[in-house]
Amino acid sequence: MKTFIIQNADKIVRAADYKHLPADKLLVTSIFRTIQGEGPYAGCPAIFLRLSGCNYGDKAEGGACQFCDTSFQFDKGRVMTFDEIHAEIKALPGYNASHVLVVTGGEPTLQYNLINFMEKSWDMFFQIQLETNGTQSSFFSRLTRAHTQEFRPAIVVSPKAQYSVGKYGRLSDTVAAWATDLKFVVEDDPSSPHYKLPSWVTYDYVSHCTVWVSPMARYKKAYEGEVASIWDRDLIDEEATARNYSYAAKFALEHNYRLSLQQHLFVGIA
């Protein structure tokens, strides 16, 4: 049985908790330039727009995200206009329009204003990638081809398995229709809900499927912020993590999936 140190725990929030925001504003945790470490644009220079709040924000024991270390606290978020966000992005050293904008959280699709923000942001980036847990089907019901103009955002859906029930819930058809990639954590532990993918994942169901290796080892200490390193032996169980990487590689080969190794952890950047 793993022992997790719950870090940056927050409260559970819903889409209704953002209704007070004017139509041209978002609740933002952070904006920073980095290398995208995983998913379809791994290795690319990227601007991360981390939005505040998550419907799994309590990171409860036995829940879907007890191993999540990300800080996205709802009450600490900054209310920012679209123009303010764009200005802060353009002021980042090294920014240019060849970057990928990665919109993440928390759970960004809790904020319906995000649809209009993406529509107004296309000319600033090579591509927009939206990271989501796939639980907010009402967000995708509002998203139309008109909103995405001639582009289509890369929508990376990372379903979450519940430890308490030992399995993944099924994605709604609405979310699945918009997903360009599905991303799953795998782990070399037959008792883990991440040992195999759910039965509803088929080759016909997704265009791409990434096996995402998270160092789901026994966390030995808590750390602040989001910068971590795979080489930190006080944080990472090296042997368990190595087994996970090996298992994920074999799993990807067996099922003809892409392998994603969280490159940012290897170089120690956010």
Q: Can you give a write-up of this model?
A:
The protein has 270 residues and is an alpha/beta fold. It has one domain (15-267): TIM Barrel, CATH 3.20.20. 19% of the residues lie in helices and 20% in strands. The protein contains six helices and eleven strands. Strands 3-1-2-4-5-6-9-10-11 form a nine-stranded mixed sheet. A two-stranded antiparallel sheet has the order 7-8. The longest helix is centred in the last third of the chain and has 18 residues, at 238-255. The two termini are 29 Å apart. Mean pLDDT is 84; it is low at 215-225.
Computed over alpha carbons, the radius of gyration is: 18 Å
| CATH architecture classification name | Alpha-Beta Barrel
The biggest sheet amounts to: 9 strands, mixed
Q: How large a portion of the residues is in β-strands, by DSSP E?
A: 15-25%
- The domain count comes to 1
Helix/strand structural class: alpha/beta
Q: How many E-type strands?
A: 11
| Tally of helical runs | 6
What overall form do the CA principal axes indicate?
globular
